[in-house]
UniProtKB/TrEMBL annotation:
<feature type="binding site">
    <location>
        <position position="353"/>
    </location>
    <ligand>
        <name>Mn(2+)</name>
    </ligand>
</feature>
<keyword id="KW-0028">Amino-acid biosynthesis</keyword>
<feature type="binding site">
    <location>
        <position position="97"/>
    </location>
    <ligand>
        <name>Mn(2+)</name>
    </ligand>
</feature>
<keyword id="KW-0457">Lysine biosynthesis</keyword>
<keyword id="KW-0378">Hydrolase</keyword>
<dbReference type="InterPro" id="IPR017439">
    <property type="entry name" value="Amidohydrolase"/>
</dbReference>
<protein>
    <recommendedName>
        <fullName>N-acetyldiaminopimelate deacetylase</fullName>
        <ecNumber>3.5.1.47</ecNumber>
    </recommendedName>
</protein>
<comment type="similarity">
    <text>Belongs to the peptidase M20A family. N-acetyldiaminopimelate deacetylase subfamily.</text>
</comment>
<dbReference type="GO" id="GO:0046872">
    <property type="term" value="F:metal ion binding"/>
</dbReference>
<feature type="binding site">
    <location>
        <position position="158"/>
    </location>
    <ligand>
        <name>Mn(2+)</name>
    </ligand>
</feature>
<keyword id="KW-0220">Diaminopimelate biosynthesis</keyword>
<feature type="active site">
    <location>
        <position position="72"/>
    </location>
</feature>
<dbReference type="InterPro" id="IPR023905">
    <property type="entry name" value="AcetylDAP_deacetylase"/>
</dbReference>
<feature type="active site" description="Proton acceptor">
    <location>
        <position position="131"/>
    </location>
</feature>
<comment type="pathway">
    <text>Amino-acid biosynthesis; L-lysine biosynthesis via DAP pathway; LL-2,6-diaminopimelate from (S)-tetrahydrodipicolinate (acetylase route): step 3/3.</text>
</comment>
<dbReference type="InterPro" id="IPR002933">
    <property type="entry name" value="Peptidase_M20"/>
</dbReference>
<dbReference type="GO" id="GO:0019877">
    <property type="term" value="P:diaminopimelate biosynthetic process"/>
</dbReference>
């Protein structure tokens, strides 16, 4: 696929961002695009219980194994502020994490193998619900990768704004953190602002809860370890002169090991219980890790990936440290060996999830080339492994 076609596809996807499990227009667009490729080697499959997902199998000419490639489809509840002429048509929703780029790269790679039959089978997984609702886990747990659709090794990318467009980056070991979604409800009693003694103010209880949570990473996590707890949503109260009888918080915690994540979860539960006792209120703490396991790259496959990318003259490879972003590809890599990697998209003044995030489309063509080269190499490598 030519660069201009990749850019046109990316711009169309960019205009139709949809939230997790609601990716209907995106699904229709992807399906139409995939159906426009030569169909000789392709089998397209949808999942009735995960209706926005699409799986495409490219039948290999002399298959020894099946290699999977995953691209996520969902967007974020962010009001786009890029000023782009092809900005989101969906009010309050934007591809602020670059999944439009991910899908475009996957389509570019798929279009190549639709014409150049691969040696091994390839399965492309267009996955709904990465930002929340763990679409990868849903697909795996419903048996999407069984029988004819079993995958032996799995690859997927995420775009990265602080690195030059088109560079490839990954590392041995953990690449992304494991996360847990945190929902907290504090329930006290509302009343008149002038009569606090007759009410139980959940804004005050929330302030204390948040302050105590800030001590967890500062005081309970070793200085050379890493963890983060962020509350991004807080809702309480209706008007200045009514004491808020309830409060609702939503946040996320992150750590590089499951042990660390379990520990952070327990500290949040403990602090919730402490707040309930000290403010004589009810505190409901709901923690949901879902499929957001730490993204652990498989040692052998990732070493091969890095060696290949470093040697390929068409690729600029940059080593990288782990980061605290999460990814439900962590769940899939927990079940199937593989490698997650970054694609640099050169937007260093912005960041993922920001309203003005605007990845450089110059990353698309080199991203597609690097992956086509690697998958072709992997198929030759796979055959040698089996000898
Ligand atoms: C790459 C990226 O930004 N991923 C998301 C993953 C969502 C994690 C989950 N919903 C949570 O908030 O715990 C991220 O926020 O890192």
């Amino acid at each position: 696929m030519k660069e201009a076609e990749l850019i046109a596809i990316r711009r169309q996807l960019h205009q139709i961002p949809e939230l997790a499990l609601q990716e209907k227009e995106t699904h229709a667009f992807l399906l139409k695009t995939i159906q426009s490729f030569p169909q000789t080697f392709l089998t397209i499959r949808t999942l009735p219980k995960l209706p926005t997902a699409i799986l495409v199998k490219v039948t290999g000419s002399d298959p020894q194994r099946t290699i999977g490639y995953r691209a996520d489809m969902d967007a974020l509840p962010v009001t786009e502020a890029t000023g782009l002429p092809f900005a989101s048509h969906h009010q309050g929703i934007a591809h602020a994490c670059g999944h439009d780029m991910h899908m475009t790269v996957a389509l570019g790679v798929l279009s190549y193998f639709a014409v150049h039959q691969p040696k091994d089978h390839l399965i492309f997984f267009f996955q709904p619900a990465e930002e929340s609702k763990n679409g990868g886990k849903l697909a795996y747990d419903m048996g999407a990768f069984t029988g004819e659709w079993q995958i032996d090794e799995f690859y997927g990318l995420h775009d990265r704004p602080d690195l030059p467009a088109g560079t490839i980056n990954t590392r041995l070991g953990t690449l992304f953190a494991g996360t847990t979604e945190i929902n907290v409800d504090l329930i006290g009693k509302s009343g008149h602002a002038a009569l606090p003694q007759n009410a139980n103010d959940m804004i005050v209880a929330t302030a204390s809860f948040i302050s105590q949570i800030q001590t967890v990473v500062a005081r309970n996590v070793g200085p050379t370890d890493s963890a983060v707890i962020t509350f991004g949503l807080m809702r309480a109260g209706t008007i200045r002169n009514v004491i808020a009888g309830s409060a609702h918080l939503e946040g996320t915690l992150r750590g590089f090991t499951q042990k660390q994540i379990n520990f952070l979860q327990q500290r949040i539960r403990d602090i919730g219980q402490g707040i309930a006792a000290s403010f004589n209120c009810e505190v409901k703490v709901d923690l949901n890790q879902g499929g957001y396991y730490p993204v652990e790259n498989n040692p052998q496959l990732t070493k091969d990936f890095i060696d290949f990318m470093q040697a390929d003259p068409a690729v600029t490879f940059v080593p990288t440290d782990p980061v605290m972003t999460g990814e439900d590809f962590g769940y899939l890599l927990n079940k199937i060996p593989g490698t997650m990697f970054w694609l640099g998209v050169n937007d260093p003044d912005s960041q993922l999830h920001a309203a003005d995030f605007s990845p450089d489309e110059a990353a698309l063509a080199p991203g597609v080339t690097a992956i086509i080269h690697f998958l072709t190499h992997r198929m030759a490598e796979a055959a040698e492994d089996l000898d």
